[in-house]
Design brief:
The structure is a single chain. By secondary structure, the protein is of the alpha/beta class. The protein folds into 2 domains: 194 residues, Glycogen Phosphorylase B (Rossmann fold), CATH 3.40.50; 153 residues, Glycogen Phosphorylase B (Rossmann fold), CATH 3.40.50. The chain is 42% helix and 16% strand. The strands form 2 sheets. A 7-stranded parallel β-sheet has the order 3-2-1-4-5-6-7, with helices on both faces. It has a 6-stranded parallel β-sheet with strand order 10-9-8-11-12-13, with helices on both faces. The longest helix is centred in the C-terminal third of the chain and has 18 residues. It starts with a strand and ends in a 7-residue tail after the last helix. The relative contact order is 0.13. The model has no long low-confidence stretch (mean pLDDT 94).
Amino acid sequence: MSLRFCVLGLSITSSWGNGHATTYRALLRALAERGHDVLFLERDAPWYAQNRDLPAPPFCRTELYGSLDELRARFAAEVRDADVVIVGSYVPDGCAVGEWVLATARGISAFYDIDTPVTARRLADGGCEYLTPALAGRYPLYLSFTGGPLLDKLARSYGANARPLYCAVDPLLYEPSSQLARWDLGYLGTYSPDRQPGLECRLLEPARRRPRLRFTVAGPQYPSAIAWPPNVERVMHVAPGEHREFYGAQRFTLNLTRADMIAAGWSPSVRLFEAAACGVPIISDAWPGLEDFFTPGREILSSQSPEETLSILDDLPEAERRLVATAARQRVLREHTAAHRAVTLEGYLQSLSMSPGHRKSRRVGEITWPRSL
């Protein structure tokens, strides 16, 4: 039996300047393929309106709203009658949206934190605009992009029922490309001040030292003051539909992690799983928990300096490069697809629907669990 999901997220129609859209697209497509009905509600923002690369996702119904008042007026019935209502991080007016959802929904309500380390820091500082300490504990389910010790901290500090729901990849969209490599090393990511030192260390300085090699950095919002080496090609934006070809044009791809995520650990980026699914070997920074997702040295490579990056680019035999790429792709297909995450989410909903005293949707309770891959 299918469930009715209502998801209120930052964006699904535009991937410009955010990593939320690709996550929602993969997860909601997987839920739809498993027979569930999905409605996505998105605040109509001008910067997304000008850059909509998937204005009408075929796997779910998508509705835009202009304000909190419009959301309440137009979609109260959908939120009330849904079996599962999920509110995402960074949703505009997220605190008010969360209060309204908890007061309106008859089914299971959940918060999906795609930015958990940032959220935890802002909750502690009192500056989180989309979640309050009280709300964190009142959502029956707190889904988190980050696992590890941070989940215990959320439970202790706010009473959150926190469970990991990591990002994932849609293997239908990401697979190896047959094209020849155009760049020796590339990076795909929106500019972030705390990632820039890692980019400088692991890509820009190696580019200066090896003028004969070719590099690329793709993503918006990089300051005009950055001095790009002449052998680094800048690409302003790569839409998700072009990610496969972009990764396929690289001998190696670089993964960089934001400072909050490094400190928390267990925070894999969706770019990790995308690149691995495309059969491109990854050079990554190191952080606690990385080995839970990929085996270092066999499925992923690590660099902490320009010298280590150049050692990989200069000295790693082609046969070994291909072995790393193949092993990473096999690991992703075995553990890190959106279908795996959909099954995980169904399991959480089953457990919650069976917990004593929970006000659950009748339809959630009627499903035959578990529904395996």
